[in-house]
Amino acid sequence: MPVHVDAVVVGLGPGGEEVAGRLADAGVDVVGVDRHLVGGECPYWGCIPSKIMVRAADLVAEGHRIPGMAGTAMVRAEWHPVARNVREATADWDDTAAVDRLTSRGCRVLRGTARLTGRDEVTVRAPDGQETVLQAGRAIVLATGTEPAPPPIPGLDGTPYWTNRDAVAAERLPRSLIVLGGGAIGLELGQAFARFGTDVTVVESAPRLLPQEEPEAGELLARVLSDEGVQVRTGARAALVVHDGNGFTLSGERGERLDAERLLVATGRRTDLAGLGVVNIGVDPDARALPVDERMRVLTASDSAPGVWALGDITGKGAFTHMAVYQAGIVVNGILRHGGAVAAYHAVPRVTFTDPEVGAVGLTEEQARERGLAVRVGLADVARSSRGYIHRAGNQGLVKVVVDDREGVLVGATSVGPWGGEVLGALTVAVHARVPVDELHRTIWAFPTFHRAIGDALRDAG
């Protein structure tokens, strides 16, 4: 017999957990479902543990910068404390505390794989095969996130390649590592391993690293990584992967050959809409993302699916924890009929936590021109703007601004450098609030700071 509830939340990552908890706080009878760990990718394999690795690697690099600036130092990097700290932060990949956090608020939690079996029905298959049918009287919320998407390279399937989850859980440093994919995940993890002594090669099929960001950012990062001893291969497509029991050999389309003990595949992520059963609410199961309206209600070919909402990665608006939590607030307001602001995506911030950090918000220059905007751009060198102020990876970095010439506002910006993600804060506010560029020109930028480059970039844009 079906279990009747007010709401079902499928996927208990940061966004789903936020919705389930807030609905329960409001007295809604809600059941949360997840087949992995409650809390999602971020606290166990993504944001939190990876930044523990990044921070540790930054400390190693800082130690090496002491000679010539602050005396002498001998740095001996050890992976064991890093692996220990990751395990402590993830509770050794145990979500008991997260489950208790939700149930204490009145939310019931089911472990299993959920599938939509009707417009108001979710069937959950537990690990032991038992099925529970949930009928939602008020709302179904879909927040299942994404999974690593390995590319269809001959020979890859069946080999013990790493995803980000394996890399984060590594108790021992590999002697050598090929990173397939020059995006945020691959570069963050690749640089961290390299700073602890692993021989790292990054292979990216696009012409530059971070292909979704400004070209100047990818080019600068490639130079920094190369200076640190990381081999960077851009415009390189993998044609074959071989694993002989001891290591990997990756062959490229142009005949190049790379050997390494481990292979980290970081080429993107995907969602399984077909497996989620979206066809049963009138959505194309082959779609790349769930179509949603400005209130996060799922759209079908003809209208919205009554009572079905979505948030996070599966909406295709940005695979970021902060995006999922932002959308969660809109979903809760919609279900509880509290009104509130609708979703707006013109100022989505994103940060790649390499050293130097790469922060970006809004549109790149290329994206703005593709939309037909008349834009002008400004570029500033952080080293010149800070007049030699040195910290972390020297003061290498840049700020780039993209100005809509007709509206006189920023539509995008990039901040690369030490604390690039923090410098991004001012740029995010400017893009989000559509602060007139004339007003930004009148802003006083403190000296000597990295954010002072914002003013120089604005002057360069004219």
Radius of gyration from CA coordinates? 23 Å
Estimate the strand proportion: 25-35%
The helix content, as a percent range, equals 25-40%
How many separate domains make up the residues?
3
The H-level CATH homologous superfamily of the largest domain, spelled out, is: FAD/NAD(P)-binding domain
Number of helical segments with 4 or more residues? 15
Secondary-structure-based class equals: alpha/beta
What gross morphology would you assign? globular
Global mean pLDDT:
95
- Tally of DSSP β-strands: 22
Question: What is the CA-CA span between the terminal residues?
Answer: 68 Å
What is the fold named in CATH at topology level of the largest domain? FAD/NAD(P)-binding domain
Gross CATH architecture of the largest domain: 3-Layer(bba) Sandwich
Sheet of most strands: 8 strands, mixed
CATH level 1 class label of the largest domain: Alpha Beta
Identify low-pLDDT runs: none
Main features:
alpha/beta, FAD/NAD(P)-binding domain, Enolase-like, domain 1, 8-stranded mixed beta sheet, 15 helices
